[in-house]
Amino acid sequence: MLFSSASAADEKVAQTAISIVSLSPPRIRVEGQLAGETTNWKFLDEYAGILSLSDRVENLRVFTADNSVIPVRRLKPGEFASASPANRFSYEVNLNPPAASVNAAHISWLTAEYGALMLDDLLPQVVRQTCLQVTMPQGWKLHTSEPQSAGGCFDIRNTEKAIIWAGRETRAYQGRTRAINFTFITQGKWSFADEEVVSSISTILKEHENVTGATPFKHALVIVAPFPVPTDAHRWSAQTRGNTVLLLSGNMAARTAALSRLNLSLVHELFHLWVPNGLALSGNYDWFYEGFTTYQATRAATELDFLTFQEYLDAIARAYDRYRAQVQAANHSLLAASEQRWRDAGTLVYHRGMVVAFLYDLDIRLRTNGKRSLSDVYRELLRRHAHGQLSQDGNSSVVQVLHSFMENAPKAHRYLMSEGVIDLTTELSPYGLEVEKRGAATRIHVASALQGAQYKLLRKIGYNDQVNRRH
Ligand SMILES: [Zn+2]
C-alpha cells in the first residue's frame, strides 16, 4: 500500500492513488484509505444510460488500518460488503473504451495515447473528497481543473464533478474573455489550426457572457479530442462537468466544414457552463437545460454568423420533424419526458424542448415589442439561482421564472406543462412565419406579406429581406 497509517490517520479526507497497470489492454490500479471505516463498498453502476459500469472493477481487496485482509462479498452489481469494517482498499479497473463511441464523453476510458479519468466512476462512492495521486507513464501529462496541493496530490473537492485528462503529446493553450480565463487542451490531428479553436472558444464564451449577463466560473477547462476509436467524421459527443468541457469529435476533411461543425458543437456545449452548471438547481429539468439550451445555442450561433437565418429556421424545422417522428410524441409533456431522458423519451426532450423554446422566444419578443426575449429568462434564472446558493428544484424554479415573463398562460406554456401535438402552422402564423411540407420534411419560411411588428421581430432574430430576395 502507498500510505502509511500514521500520516493518513491525520487526514480528514480519503487518500487515493491511481497508477497504470498496463496501457494495452488499458488497466489502472486504484488504492486508497478512507477517512473512516466502512463495510459498504459501492461503485457507480449506471451513468447517462450506460449500464454495468461496475463490472469494470476487478480484484477488490479491503484491509484494516493494520493491513489485515477482510473478506468481501458481492451483494449486487456495484455493491460489495466486507465482513467487518475496513478503511483501506485496492482494486483494478478495466478501462477499455466503451463499445458505442458516443458514450466515451460520459465515462472513464484510456487508450495507449490518451484518455479521460472521471473520478465518479473510478472511486468508491463513499469517497466524495480526496487527495488523489495519479502516476502515469513517462511523457504523459495530466490536465484538470482540480487544484494541486503542496503535497503533490490533486485536491478533489467533489468527485462527481472531477475529470482528469491524461495524454501523451497533449497541446495546451491559454485564452481569456472579459471575465473568464480558459485553458484549451487538444490532441491528434485536425483539419483546422489549434489557434482557430482558441479564437472560437473565446468568441463563444463572450457571446454567452453578454447574453446571460453572468459569469458562473472564473476559469474553464475545454478539452477537444478525437474519439478513442475511429468514428464517423460528422459525429461529436460532449459532456460538461463543473467547469470542465470534454468534447470528443470526428474530423471532417475540409477545413471550413470541420471548423463550422466544431463551432456549432462548442456553442451548445459551452453554454452548459451556464446552464445547468452555473445554476443551483437540481432534479430532472432536462427539457430546459437540454431542450431549451439546444434552441438558445442555435440563437447564439445565428448571432455569431455560424448559421444563416434560414439555417436557424431549418434547425427548428428539423427538431420539429424529429419530435413528430416519435411514436409516443403526443403522449408526453416535456416535464414527464424529462424523467426518462436516457431511455426512450431522450430525443423528445431535446427536440420538443427546442420547438417549445422557439415559441416562448417569439411570444416574449412580440409582446414586448422586441424589448425582451428568452435570453432575459436566462438572465433572470442565473440571477435568482446562481450556483453557490441553496439548491432548489429545477422544474418549479424554471417554470416560475418563465411565468414571470408570461401573460395569460400562452400556448407555449401548455405544450410545456401538458400533453398534446404542437400545431406548428397555427403557432407560427402570428409571427409572419409559414410552414410547408416538402415530402416528409417540414420547412419554415418567412411569409411574403409581413405586418410591421412581424417584420421588426424577424429582423431582430436575423431575417434580412435583401439577402432573402436575392436567393
Ligand atoms: Zn447538451
Key descriptive features of the protein:
471 residues, alpha+beta, Immunoglobulin-like, Neutral Protease, domain 2, 3 domains, 8-stranded mixed beta sheet, 5-stranded mixed beta sheet, binds zinc ion
Task: Describe this structure as you would to a colleague.
- With 471 residues, the chain is an alpha+beta fold.
- It has three domains: 163 residues, Immunoglobulin-like, CATH 2.60.40.3650; 100 residues, Neutral Protease, domain 2 (Orthogonal Bundle); 197 residues, Orthogonal Bundle (Neutral Protease, domain 2).
- The chain is 33% helix and 28% strand.
- The strands form five sheets. Strands 1, 2, 3, 4, 5, 6, 9 and 11 form an eight-stranded mixed beta sheet that branches. A five-stranded mixed beta sheet has the order 13-14-15-17-16, with helices on one face.
- β14, α3 and β15 form a beta-alpha-beta unit.
- The chain is elongated, with a radius of gyration of 24 Å.
- The N and C termini lie far apart (71 Å).
- Zinc ion binds next to α5.
Shape type? elongated
What is the helical fraction, as a range of percent?
A: 25-40%
- Over all CA atoms, what is the radius of gyration? 24 Å
> Looking at CATH, which topology of the largest domain would you report?
Neutral Protease, domain 2
Q: What value does the average pLDDT take?
A: 90
What is the strand tally? 21
Question: In what range is the share of β-strand residues?
Answer: 25-35%
Give the termini distance in whole angstroms. 71 Å
- Main β-sheet description: 8 strands, mixed
